[in-house]
């Protein structure tokens, strides 16, 4: 015993060492249990389909709120989400940014109100997409499991919740692999990762904190929508389009991708294009393709001096972009797919000037 150390100190030191040994033993037991878990197992198609539908349905039917962390490449953003559903299967959602300038998105079913406080502006539009996190499936026109193998990985605890973990491995190199963490009881997606062919995480979105089964506060969302009625409103309208009528054709070059939407949409305004100083709405045509799990868009816009463009490629995280010029039009292909897939779609766009009929 060292001189000056009291019996109480020595007893305390023994307790600390005993506690450390307990922690070390617990760690070893946990590691042993983890190593003893079964290896990755391929899911039967029936079980895989059930889980995919459960995950997708939970995003639409569960009441939940929490904090989302979104990472694409080196860029990270945080936001707060509230989501509620009623007996009639109506959806109400509020999404607030926690980084940068304040932004708020309020949704009632497919009508979305994007609030820009510093401009007292509300942008209103209808959004048909149903695949935004924590939702999953973009379309039922194709079966995801014809294109991906789904495997069950060992369960993990995430954001304080016990989660089932799954890997979706594509059959080819035309799309990325995906990893999913779903809360075991409700099926709510807690984390989703997009990975390249080497297993590197290109993009991920996850709840850092989430509560499931919370009381509905849909009236607060509806009140917030009504409370913005005094702001300036800009309504984004989408018109059905048929690019074939205007001389365009796109022969889908990649198996599994199907056209799910074709619209004409405003992109902004060009000033002084009508010779009288008035603004002219600038429109683009958009064709959306999906394999059920991921997708890409082809944009067609006329060449304009007011919008400087140039041909090239770019990428950020899982998102790839290709811009090319055809005649007097810019073609932009954007997708969360490998670069080769985006380039194939860009090369598949063809234009034949429509015949003028008298």
From TrEMBL:
Domain MucB/RseB C-terminal: 244-350
Compartment list: Periplasm
Entry-linked InterPro entries: MucB/RseB_C (IPR033436), MucB/RseB_C_sf (IPR038484), MucB/RseB_N (IPR033434), MucB_RseB (IPR005588)
MucB/RseB N-terminal domain residues: 47-221
Signal peptide boundaries: 1-36
Keywords per UniProt: Periplasm, Signal
Record CDD domains: RseB
Family: Belongs to the RseB family.
Name of this chain's protein: Sugar dehydratase
């Amino acid at each position: 015993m060292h001189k000056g150390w009291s019996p109480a100190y020595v007893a305390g030191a023994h307790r600390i060492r005993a506690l450390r040994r307990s922690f070390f033993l617990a760690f070893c037991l946990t590691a042993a249990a983890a190593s003893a878990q079964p290896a990755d197992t391929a899911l039967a198609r029936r079980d895989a389909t059930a889980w995919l539908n459960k995950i997708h349905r939970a995003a639409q039917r569960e009441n939940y709120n929490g904090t989302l962390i979104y990472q694409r490449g080196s860029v990270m953003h945080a936001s707060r989400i509230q989501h509620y559903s009623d007996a009639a299967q109506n959806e109400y959602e509020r999404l607030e940014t926690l980084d940068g300038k304040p932004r708020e998105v309020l949704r009632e079913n497919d009508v979305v109100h994007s609030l820009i406080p510093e401009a007292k502006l509300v942008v209103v539009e209808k959004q048909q997409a149903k695949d935004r996190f924590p939702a999953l499936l973009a379309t039922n026109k194709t079966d995801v499991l014809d294109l991906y193998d789904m495997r069950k990985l060992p369960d993990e605890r995430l954001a304080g919740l016990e989660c089932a973990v799954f890997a979706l491995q594509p059959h080819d190199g035309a799309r990325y692999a995906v990893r999913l963490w779903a809360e075991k009881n409700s099926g709510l997606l807690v984390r989703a990762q997009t990975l390249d062919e080497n297993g590197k995480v290109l993009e991920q979105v996850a709840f850092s904190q989430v509560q499931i089964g919370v009381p509905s506060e849909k009236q607060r969302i509806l009140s917030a929508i009504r409370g913005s009625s005094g702001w300036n409103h800009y309504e984004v309208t989408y018109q059905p389009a048929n690019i074939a009528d205007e001389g365009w054709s796109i022969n889908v070059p990649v198996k599994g991708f199907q056209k799910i939407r074709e619209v004409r949409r405003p992109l902004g305004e060009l000033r002084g294009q009508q010779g009288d100083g008035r603004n002219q709405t600038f429109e683009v045509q958009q064709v959306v393709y999906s394999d059920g799990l991921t997708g890409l868009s082809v944009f067609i816009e006329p060449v304009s001096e007011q919008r400087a463009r140039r041909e090239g490629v770019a990428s950020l995280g899982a998102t790839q972009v290709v811009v090319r010029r055809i005649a007097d039009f810019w073609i932009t292909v954007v997708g969360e797919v490998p670069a080769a897939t985006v380039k194939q779609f860009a090369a598949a766009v063809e234009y034949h000037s429509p015949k003028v009929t008298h």
